[in-house]
Amino acid sequence: MILDAAARTVLMPVLLLQAVYLRMTVLRLPEPDGAREGKVGQGPPLRLTILGDSSAAGVGVADQQDALLGQVNHRLAPHFTTDYRLIAATGSRTGDVLGWLQDMQALDADVAVIALGVNDVTKGVSLRRWLRQQSALLDRLVHDFGVKYVVVSGLPPMHDFPLLPQPLRWVLGRQAARFDKALHEMVAERRDATSITIDMRLNRENMSEDGFHPGPVVYSAWADAVAAQILDHAALLDGTDRNA
C-alpha cells in the first residue's frame, strides 16, 4: 500500500498526461437500443431491477438482448415471469445512484443487481468513502425499498483493460483490486446480499471495441453468475420454489 502510494506520486505527471490523452481520444460507445423495462418469461412472479454504470447499461453491445439485462432475463425466463427494470447511465458513480434513489418513492423490486465501482476508481473516490456509499446503497435498497436480495457485482480486473496504457493500467488495476477485495469483505457480513466475481481474463477478443467495456462473451459470463445467485436464493422471493 505504501509502495503503491509512493509509485503513484512519482508517476503522477505521466498518469495525468495519459488520463488527458484518453479523454481526448477514447472511442465513446453509445448505450444499446432495446427495452429497459418490461415483462418476460413464465412461472412465479419476480421483480428485477439492475442499477449501475455504463456496464449495467450495456455499453459495448448494440442491443439490450446481448447486454447484462437481456442475458439475465433469458436465463431466468424458464423459471420466473420477470418484471424487469434497468436504471443505469454512463459515467455513474455509487454516489450518483444514491442520489437517484433519494428522489424515488418506491422501487418495486424483489431482487436488485448492482454494477458500480469503475467510475469511482477512475474519478478518484476514496476507498473509505466508497465503502460507506456502497453500504448506504444496500441499506437503502433493503430497508427503505423492501428489496429481498441484492446481487453486488465485483469490480472487473482493470489491469486487463486493453484501452489503458501503462503505467496508468497498473495504477488503476491496483486500486480496483483493493476496492474489489473490500467490497467482497463488506458484503460477506450481510445476509441480504451476495457479491459475485467473473473468473475471466479480459482481452481485445472478449471486450468491446473501445477496450474498456464488456463484449457479448463477458456479458454472458456475468449473466451466468447473476442468474445462478438468483436461482440459488429463489426461496427468498415471495416463497417461490427454486425448482419452479
Shape: globular
Question: Low-confidence segments, ≥5 residues, pLDDT <50?
Answer: 240-244
What average pLDDT do the residues reach?
92
**Total domains, how many?**
1
Q: How big a fraction of the residues is strand? A: 5-15%
Going by helix content, strand content and strand pairing, the class is alpha/beta
Reading the helices and strands in chain order gives HEEHHEHEHHEHEH
Main beta sheet: 6 strands, mixed
- What name is given to the CATH topology? Rossmann fold
Please report the number of helical segments: 8
- CATH H-level superfamily: SGNH hydrolase
User: What does the radius of gyration come to?
Assistant: 18 Å
Strand order of the largest sheet: 1-3-2-4-5-6
Topology:
Elements: H1 2-25, E1 37-41, E2 45-52, H2 54-57, H3 68-76, E3 81-88, H4 94-102, E4 111-115, H5 118-122, H6 127-144, E5 149-153, H7 168-188, E6 193-196, H8 216-232
Parallel strand pairs: 2-3, 2-4, 4-5, 5-6
Antiparallel strand pairs: 1-3
Helix pairs in contact: 3-8, 4-6, 6-7
Question: Overview of this structure, please?
Answer:
With 244 residues, this protein is of the alpha/beta class. The protein has one domain (38-236): Rossmann fold. It is built from 8 helices and 6 strands; from the N terminus they run H-E-E-H-H-E-H-E-H-H-E-H-E-H. The chain has helices at 2-25, 54-57, 68-76, 94-102, 118-122, 127-144, 168-188, 216-232, and strands spanning 37-41, 45-52, 81-88, 111-115, 149-153, 193-196. It has a 6-stranded mixed sheet, with helices on both faces. Strand 5, helix 7 and strand 6 form a beta-alpha-beta unit. It is globular, with a radius of gyration of 18 Å. The termini are far apart. The relative contact order is 0.16.
